[in-house]
Amino acid sequence: MNLHTNGSIIASMVNDPALDVRQAIASSKNTPGPVLKQLYEIDQSDDIVYNLTQNPNAPASLLREMAEPGKIKLGYLAFIAQNPNTPLHLLLELAKHPDGLVRLGVARNKNAPPELLQRMIASGESVVAKAARKTLKGEIQEVKQP
Fold first, then answer.
1. Less crowded by CB within 10 Å, the N or C end of the chain?
2. Does the predicted TM-score (pTM) go above 0.85?
3. Where are the domains of the chain?
4. Residue 27: is it exposed, middle or buried by C-beta count within 10 angstroms (0-12/13-18/19+)?
């Protein structure tokens, strides 16, 4: 699938039986938010969720839904924490998460408020603090799992 395909064509392909087509839809920056939500309702497999959590078009409502306890793998929660569409109230929750990778995702979120990033710097957790400093300076590095 051409990743530059327009949203209406992408929407017509959301029910495609081929996993690689659904993965391309989940990862495409051209996929509209409502189509991403529809895809999640149809397919909650790891292959799809992995891409949805990292898609910057994922609507805040979808990110909130996926972040509910037990919905997705812990590693994918770190991607939600880093997603620029993650709503503030969820970022604040995730910043207190017991898993360091989730907190690291918050520290790498370019839309995290400076006050939150300052608290993360002050936490003394070296990797998280270093990432929060870089985010404050605009030196954000996105990291994808293999």
1. C
2. yes
3. 1-58, 69-146
4. middle
